[in-house]
Amino acid sequence: MKFLNPHDPFFKPLWVRILVVLVPLVWAGLELYSGSQTWAIISLALGFYAGLQLFWVFYKTPEKGDKE
C-alpha cells in the first residue's frame, strides 16, 4: 500500500490533484508566517511529495505486473 496512490480514481480530475498539492503548500506558508519553521518544512515536504506523485507519477502508466 502506498502513502498516496496517484492511480486511484479519486485523483483523476485535475482540480482534485491541484487542491491536494496546494493545501499543504499554503499551510507551509501560514506556518512560516506564524514563526514555526519545523511545521513549515514538514508541510512543504508533504506538498512536494504530493506534487511529485500526482503530476509526475500520475502520467506514467502502471506496468502490467504492478499491483495497485
From TrEMBL:
Residues that span the membrane, as ranges: 14-33, 39-59
Organism: Allorhizobium terrae
Keyword annotations: Membrane, Transmembrane, Transmembrane helix
Lineage: Bacteria, Pseudomonadati, Pseudomonadota, Alphaproteobacteria, Hyphomicrobiales
Protein name: DUF3329 domain-containing protein
